Amino acid sequence: MNVAIVGAGALGSLVGGLLARQGHAVWLYNPSNVEHVKAIQARGLLIETPEGDVWRVEVPAAAQIYEIPGPVELLGVFVKVYATRDALERAKPLIAPNTWVLSLQNGVGIEELLRRYAPAGRALRGTTAQGATLVAPGRVRWAGRGPTRLGPLSPEALDEVALNELKGIVRALDAAGLEARYEPDVERALWEKLLVNAAINPLTALLGVPNGRLVEDPELRAILRDVVREALPVAQAHGVPLAPEEAIALVEGVCRATARNLSSMLQDVRRGRPTEIDFISGPIVREGERLGVPTPLQRLLWRLVRWLHPTPAPRPPR
Ligand code: KPL
Q: Are strands 131-136 and 139-144 parallel, antiparallel or unpaired?
């Protein structure tokens, strides 16, 4: 399979590198981290596995889109969620009528964009619990394994041949080590992950603590639970079938499983980068308004994160 990874940072490089190891023809593209690209060009991509091995993967990398021979069969979009439109615009030359466009990005709100740029029915969306950190240019730490779920945003537009092709992609991602499963209900999967991110990411970013502290400290744990309880009815309206205690168990379980991790939002804050808050708290507050579900805690978290770390997307809370 011909693959291009647009936004080959930590997770994108890991996914691309794992596919390349399986023999797929992968290109990594990263216009904003030229050092990373140069390091991969010079000595390959190094992947530190969760078991402590280091794999060296020969995979071509580019900082300019025109260097990549297109079109590709699979375009993986791994940029920060607020940079999706730019990334898709740049990647246009790689997209042909048979290209699948896959996003495993955090948050909710880019689905229309993906539909617009992908050929009919070929926009794929999903979530992953795989952990990756860029430890040095050209070197990615595979910080932890976890399930990857993906499916089509417009399943009704796919015939059986296309659906089988898509299931082949899921199998390829699974064989590469990503624990990938076909997800027929993408919306439910996205909103379940959104609930987790909306609870953990703003709190850790504002407090400057690793994920585990949110359950180890009794006061923070009580706050975390309140945030989950408040957002849950909005997630339920989008198909998440969890009862309050189950939702709390899910979020606390992620805090424990990733106890020493810094959330992606805290990492963004520490690196002085814009955060993804508009696509995490934003959908919960807006959907809450539409549904008549008050979400004052989420609104406050959104405003505080934005106040501390302005984001480029013009979506301020009201
Ligand atoms: O997805 C994450 C993130 O940091 O964005 C969690 C699950 C919170 C892990 O850190």
A: antiparallel
User: Which residues are marked as active site?
Assistant: 193
| CATH number for the domain formed by residue range(s) 187-308 | 1.10.1040.10
Q: How far apart are the first and last CA of the chain?
A: 45
Ligand 1 centroid – CA 275 distance (Å): 13
Taking domain 2-184, whether its CATH number is 3.40.50.720 is answered by yes
- Which residue lies with its CA nearest to atom 6 of ligand 1? 263
Three-class SS of residue 179? coil
Digit-coded pLDDT (tens) for 236-264: 999 999 999 999 999 999 999 888 888 99
Q: What is the pTM of this model?
A: 0.93
The ranges of the chain annotated as CATH 1.10.1040.10 are 187-308
130 Cβ closer than 6 Å to some ligand 1 atom: no
The rounded distance, in Å, linking the Cα atoms of 298 and 229 is 11
Q: Is the CB of 258 within 6 Å of ligand 1?
A: yes
CB of 214 closer than 8 Å to CB of 224? yes
